[in-house]
Amino acid sequence: MATASRTGATRLHRSLSKEIMFFEILVRLPTKYLLRCRAVCRAWRRTTSKRRFLLAHHARQPALPIICSVQHGDGRYLSIQAFDHQAADAQIQPVARLDDTFSLAASCDGLLILSLGAMCNHVSVCNTVTRQHAPLRQLQGFTVMTLYPHRPTGEYRILLHMESIRVHMQPKSKIGCYVFVLGSDQPPRYIGEPEASFALCMGNPCLVRDSLHWFPPLQRGSESRVIFAYDTAAESFRQKGAPVVHANSYIFEVDDTLGIYSYDDDTEIVEILVLQNYENEVWNYKCQVKLPSAEIMGQLGSSTCFWNVSVVSRDGDFLLQVTYDRWLFCVDTEGKLVDSLHLDCKHTYACNLQLKQSLVPHNFFRH
């Protein structure tokens, strides 16, 4: 009896040790290191390939801002990179290098939507970690607005827009918005033409509370800017009130709510507001940051520069990204220059997209 008890305790200990090993330690590894761990033994490979583990691993991965660069000259290409702003020392992680006729249209859960050509003649989905890709032939001529998870079904869906100049590229199509399910053999489904739908194609939205949010420029005939929201479950558009801000203002996601940052070129000041109460549309003024312009221009070796500014959330605070030519500068909310990164490619810009790497398998790559 004592021997049987000890045997049972040993098995329990081994089971707990295995659970801790995989779901407390290995689950935290970056994807490239996890792939190396699979070579240790068959048991490790088997466990780390199971969907339960891969979903847990994906949930632990950081959502990193995507930085794009375009290289001209002898070699013309688009460089897609992830900016690890959460590391002790800021790091740039290469993601993909493509011909410059490609453009990055959307990103969600490690999946990238790529568009080829000015008329969106070819659209494809890929996972750069698993090196899988699939053409999306049904999307020819459509403008990709965004890619998002559809919680009720577990599907990934693409929100699309058809413009008047491209209607001829799709039989029986009409101007407006469409929804396409990744992996489906059906054509995109028409859902209507919301107000200012074309303007929503100009920027990448933020997904908060299962709704996509845009903050387009002031529309002709309107007295104030509004936030457009798309309920991904109900497949309906609505408007939300927005604070009065500088014309050069953009929306971003911060701690499961919305933020808006404004940049004044004349004063070189960035202002940040956060939506404190989503239902009642109450906004909270968070901070004002004066860019360290002299220090930045000193590193650039120039007295006049027209740079791009964006804001990302980091550990309950904010980080300002300043991009110009080959440079990425990081500024904290005290206005201090905390990092400077010199990149390989010119024409660097932040595209308000994030990459959260994933090894989770998808059936649409098997078609």
Automatic annotation (TrEMBL):
SUPFAM superfamilies: F-box domain. InterPro entries: F-box-like_dom_sf, F-box_dom, SCF_F-box_component. It comes from the Eukaryota. This is Uncharacterized protein. It comes from Aegilops tauschii.
